[in-house]
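User: Please predict structures.

Assistant: First:
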Amino acid sequence: MILTSNPHAQYAAHKAEIDAAVARVCAAGHYVLGKEVAVFENEFAAFCGTGYGIGVNSGTDALTLALRALSVGIGDEVITVSHTAVATVAAVIAAGAKPVLVDIDPATFTIDPAAVERAIGPKTRAIIPVHLYGMPADMDAIMTIAGRHGLKVIEDCAQAAGARYRGRRVGSIGHAGCFSFYPTKNLGAIGDGGMIVTGDGYLAERVRQLRQYGWNAKRESQVDGMNSRLDEMQAAILRVKLPYLDADNRRRGGIARYYDDALAGSKLVTSAVPPTREHVYHLYIVRSERRDAALEQLRRSGVAAGIHYPVPVHLQAAFRGRGFEAAPLPHSEQAAAQVLSLPIYPELEQSQMEAVVAAAGARAALAAAGSPR
């Protein structure tokens, strides 16, 4: 079976370095918020082009803590999308705020700036654009809207580590950027992990305090914080992988271009990437009006394609009927009914790629597609 993602393949690709990093942490005897975390925070912040990085337990916690550090909470509204991983919305609720869900741009699957503008009200405090699938959102438009209305912008970069918008890394454009290091991500740990990056020193200190019970230097709680710490083991593993991230993302881009070429004559509709955005293809998404039949065809052929995401957040049982959506969300609902994720990860082999497009009904295009560019 050809997997949609394969974290074990990346471990195998860097096994000696990862094993050495794990042994180093075990021998050091300091396992939580030690040297590995501190160095990785600096390395990842430098990679993103920000002054500060704060390691936390998960991407979900990163969003929650960023909101809380920006004093967004009870009585406030936060605009984001319904076509996203449920974590985006769950984080807003965990911070005590109300999510206001708007529609996506159907061409990019990212937040529609015009829908954001229409949804702003007297209680709106922040916007969370999601760089979904590795595609940066339209940050020029979002930042312009936020500036006009005095709103905070928290970038959900969980699926987009290394992506660029007009040459800038995602996470460095808004007031804060939030990352997930879940094992399947482009930069994945072997367990949970997350990071908040920002250029604001005060905000960084607020997050550092909130991630550990609101403690001061004497370990006395000054504010109502929580326990959300990146452990040394995951930081050490991520330090091994970070120098390979740009090369891995280029490989993902090459696989995506191969798929684009090979599927051009098929019934699967591929996505375009605006010239201002550098997509890092956490997922390779196609559309099909007969999605379930296409999914079954792929699975019968040994291809474990996925669906990201089959039900928009506003239609899921926990959120249905709570009035979170600002208006009808037709593009989000259509995407949920049509999207299909094909296998993509840096270690995917040429023969596996050929098997994927053959299973998708694009055999005639194989010869023209060639190898990844």
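Second:
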Amino acid sequence: MTRRILTAALALAALTAVGSVAQPKPESARPNVLFIAVDDLRPQMGCYGDRLAKTPHIDRLAAQGVVFDRAYCQQAVCSPSRTSLLTGRRPDTTKVYDLDTPFRKNLPEVVTLPQHFKAYGYHSQGMGKIYHGGLDDAASWSVPHWMPKRPGFGPEGQKLLTRLRQEARAAGKDLTKRSNQPRGLPWEAPEVEDSALPDGAIADHAVETLRQVKDRPFFLAVGFIKPHLPFVAPKKYWDLYSREQFRLADNPHPPKGAPTYSLSNWGELRAYLGMPKQGPVTEDQARSLIHGYYASMSYMDAQVGKVLAELDRLGLRENTIVVLWGDHGWELGEHGEWCKHENYETSTRAPLIVSAPGRKANGKTSRALVEFVDLYPTLTELCGLPLPEGLEGTSFQPLLEQADRPWKKAAFSQYPRNVARMGRGMGYTLRTDRYRLVEWTLPGKDFQEYELYDHQTDPGENVNLAQQPEHAELVKKLAEQLHAGWQAARP
């Protein structure tokens, strides 16, 4: 009785902050949510048209749901992107632009997506990487968030990392600072079982948790770490591929006419052992990095398959919405870049698959423009819960019934950058059906610089058209659309 009263009180409190007066569905009629987050996953799986990728489990999920081919994060780095998705707010509202700022510093009373489900009687549980590491949110969960206690390398890689840390301490480096921490090898193929590494342990924990919560409505968030650096996966996943299969990026150069500051220096990768501190990686290194990325992706796919198999075994699939998303894109040599941290298509576009039982569009691919801030209102509506006030996205539930229906006019992302000799600026990008516009600004200064890419003629975003006189009117029109903001782009 006490638990029921507490649940009702929480629901009533949450209802005072909602913008919809619709009554929530009774608990017995609500679907479960299996919420699968994947770190640094670009849309490179078989279901996204990559014939080389070995991702059978994600591909099978895609066949049972809707694949969103043009889904965009709001900032292409872990914490800002995850914060935006999980709060339903954009970075200029959360004020989270880096890896260190907790979102409750600026939004102390915000109700997160899992917290909203918890308030309406769901068991909300998170494991693995959901929020960025070190920034977990206790209010989101019914029980404490769980992380695996597994090394990120195989035995030899772990020995090397331990030695590097000892040497750093002996040299007087403060290892509490992220910049001083040795990263170890950029890739490794240890001969270990899946569960010896973190993602295997996360899958095992998810399976056990499903068995425990199967008889009550649940919001289960499972966050896999690979294919994030370092590219460590059991050797059997490396053996799925041959190095000779991999083609290097065909545009290993900056976009012609783009501002020099628009690109990153991919410092995240440079911190790993053997990576160049300046300049490009060698062709051999590039091939090893791509091989490692694919091996890590296949390893993660196998763990997803383990969790989905248990969902099926327990007879829960027909009453469970399964969502799989990557927090942003990742570069594999395009524009000479690695990692993310940019406003380009390779960084802002990420995979999104939604499998909601009984939806007419299941098995189809949608080319509609959707944004990660849209996922909060979408899941809320699918589960019959009221919509909280303050959300800055739009439910794409109608696309689950008709994947090709007219939809948003644009998607919006942003990334901060230091502009040489001028200060800290912000790049705001608008992605329409055909174009990408980037506007670079400096707070308090009369400064604007533009990038314009035509995806119809230049899908790789290799030539900036913004400075060409014949495109001046188009730049002006798209800039006006950018300034009108996300509200004006809604369907």
